[in-house]
């Protein structure tokens, strides 16, 4: 069994800070679970244009308020504490944070650790792992 704590992980190489968000990656490819699990903070006012072409992602909102828009059809969904959105079709989307939002995210295939978005809003399949 593996046991980790968010507060400790926040002080390690598991915490990645990028433009409009930061994410602490609690479970990664090296753990051999077939998925990765992250606690992500989206900063208030952020507008993220994302397209995870190489990964499936599910995102559960723990707290905060915002919206997600699917680019293909322009549909907008309110996201509040308790909402989950599931990108089962590698959907191109726009995430907007009205307040700071805390999200629990699962990726399949799992991230290595250091991924940040490329110009298309995707993560590459190969990336550097973390130093714990
Ligand atoms: C919700 C979302 O995709 N935010 C970007 C960060 C990502 N969840 C991550 O890498 O943990």
Commentary on this structure:
There is one protein chain. The chain is mainly beta. It has a domain at 22-108: Jelly Rolls (Sandwich), CATH 2.60.120.10. Helix content is 3%, strand content 45%. The chain is built from 1 helix and 10 strands, in the order αββββββββββ. It has a 6-stranded antiparallel beta sheet, with no helix packed on it. Strands 4-9-6-7 form a 4-stranded antiparallel beta sheet, with no helix packed on it. β1 (15-18) and β2 form a beta hairpin. The longest helix has 4 residues, at 6-9. The chain is globular and about 40 Å long. The relative contact order is 0.27. The mean pLDDT is 97.
Task: Report the sheet with the most strands, covering strand number, pairing sense and barrel closure.
Answer: 6 strands, antiparallel
| Contiguous runs where pLDDT drops below 50 for at least 5 residues | none
Count every beta strand, where a strand is a DSSP E run of 2 or more residues. 10
The CATH architecture name of the domain at 22-108 reads Sandwich
Ligand roster: (2~{S})-4-acetamido-2-azanyl-butanoic acid
What order do the helices and strands follow? HEEEEEEEEEE
- Which structural category fits the helices and strands? mainly beta
* Mean pLDDT across residues: 97
**So how many helices?**
1
Please report the distance between the alpha carbons of the first and last residues.
17 Å
Overall geometry: globular
Can you tell me the CATH topology of the domain at 22-108? Jelly Rolls
Approximate helicity band? under 10%
With strands numbered from the N-terminus, the spatial order across the biggest sheet is: 1-2-3-10-5-8
| Assembly classification | single chain
- The CATH fourth-level homologous superfamily of the domain at 22-108: Jelly Rolls
Rg: 14 Å
């Amino acid at each position: 069994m593996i046991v980790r704590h968010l507060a400790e992980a926040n002080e390690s190489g598991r915490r990645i800070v990028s433009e409009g968000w930061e994410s602490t990656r609690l479970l990664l490819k090296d753990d051999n679970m077939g998925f990765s699990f992250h606690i992500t903070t989206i900063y208030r006012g952020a507008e993220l244009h994302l397209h995870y072409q190489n990964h499936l992602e599910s995102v559960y909102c723990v707290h905060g308020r915002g919206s997600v828009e699917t680019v293909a059809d322009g549909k907008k969904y309110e996201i509040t504490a308790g909402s989950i959105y599931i990108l089962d079709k590698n959907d191109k989307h726009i995430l907007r944070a009205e307040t700071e939002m805390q999200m629990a995210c699962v990726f399949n295939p799992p991230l290595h650790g250091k991924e940040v978005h490329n110009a298309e809003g995707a993560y590459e399949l190969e990336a550097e792992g973390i130093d714990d």
